[in-house]
Specification:
Two copies of one chain form a homodimer.
Chain A: E1 2-3, H1 5-11, H2 18-36, E2 41-42, H3 44-51, H4 55-63, E3 75-76, H5 77-88, E4 94-99, H6 103-109, H7 112-116, E5 119-126, E6 135-136, E7 139-143, H8 147-153, E8 158-161, H9 165-178, E9 182-185, E10 198-201, H10 205-220
Parallel strand pairs in A: 4-5, 4-8, 5-7, 8-9, 9-10
Antiparallel strand pairs in A: 1-10, 2-3, 6-7
Domain CoA-binding (chains A, B): 89-190
Family (chains A, B): Belongs to the transcriptional regulatory Rex family.
Organism (chains A, B): Anatilimnocola aggregata
Chain lengths: 223, 223
């Protein structure tokens, strides 16, 4: 993930580094796994070990948001899950739009991980007349010119940009004008947007680097 | 990203936590940005500040792999970039396969970030007769039954699984039998694979959680 730190950091006061917020998601997933595995409490040491962080890093990260541990107990998993979801804003559900009904947009409509975490895709946008007014993968598709009206009617606050780089900025500008507050950008360009708009860019190559590392490090050690 | 830590950790000796390897990618991107911005050297403090880590965390992460800093200088950017690329295995290029020529597979063929970091997609696989033998998005598509031969001929070592959950395990088994060493899994299931095979699962909801956090935290503070 390449976060667009410039946009994000300058709008948060006091500043919480974006990487800390990213780690909150990792803590949340591990806590959910721990609960699934029957754990009721955990510790900064256990969470750190599961994720490869120092226990000091875990405590420092969580300390940005409050005091969550209990002396002699550690963290209560269910309580910390609820707290993190509230911090991340996923204790509520969010209505999303996707712009770009190409291969990536269609793929993302069907991505189940979004709905599991409280993100519901409620509208698609494109500029191809053949796609407008139809349903694609079960999602109603509108012309980008209708974005302001649809965003207002459906209370859409976040949008996914899945268009070619050449038009990504124009699309993002339209989304911002329509009132969208955050953009997940799959186009490999940096968007120039007002400071109060949050953007996150997706860098899937990081995941592949994890694989190549593991294959290479295995080879270095012999069979 | 939800890494399948079970597969990964048990095969690495001495164990480097997967999260540390993930941070290597982040350090690499920041170093590349620093070089682009004219910096020749940097420090654990600067790298940490850019990413929201403590300087101790940066030093501890890098110490897994060697001694990279110079007293009174810090890190030489170009040298550390080369070292990290070597550690990650991206100082060489990798040949990849994609299985599943649906929306996601087609989208990933066109994903530019892969090639930029040294990952080249050289073959696609599917089981739909209408797709076999054709080129999709410029990529030659083979039947999954041909996977062993194609993997050998094209020296494919990593694969991306972009098929429905119901068939993901069967596809992964076929890839492993064919000799693939690492799998990037977009199907929302945990794959049961031999210990020596590396898998990374992709969790795009984490990126959306970053957005919702920023929108919520902005609102909490008022306009």
């Amino acid at each position: 993930m390449a976060e667009d730190k410039k946009n994000v950091d300058e709008s948060a006061e006091p500043q919480v580094p974006q990487a800390v917020v990213s780690r909150l998601s990792l803590y949340l997933r591990e806590l959910q796994h721990l609960v699934r595995d029957g754990f009721e409490t955990t510790s900064s040491t256990q969470l750190g070990r599961l994720l490869g962080f120092t226990d000091a890093q875990v405590r420092k990260d969580l300390a940005y948001f409050g005091q969550f541990g209990y002396p002699g107990i550690g963290y209560r998993c269910a309580e910390l899950i609820a707290a993190i979801k509230k911090i991340l804003g996923t204790n509520q559900s969010w209505s999303l739009a996707i712009v770009g009904m190409g291969n990536l947009g269609r793929a993302l409509i069907g991505y189940r991980g979004f709905q599991q975490q409280g993100f519901e895709i409620v509208a698609g946008f494109d500029t191809d007349p053949a796609k407008i007014g139809n349903k694609i993968e079960g999602l109603q598709v509108y012309h980008l010119d209708e974005v302001t009206q649809v965003v207002r009617e459906k209370n859409i606050r976040l949008a996914i940009v899945a268009v070619p780089s050449a038009v990504a900025q124009r699309v993002a500008d339209a989304l911002v004008s329509a009132g969208v507050e955050g953009i997940l950008n799959f186009a490999p360009v940096t968007l120039a947007l007002p400071k109060h708009i949050h953007t996150v860019g997706v860098d899937l190559a990081i995941e592949l680097e994890q694989l190549s590392f593991n294959v290479v490090s295995k080879l270095a050690k012999g069979p």
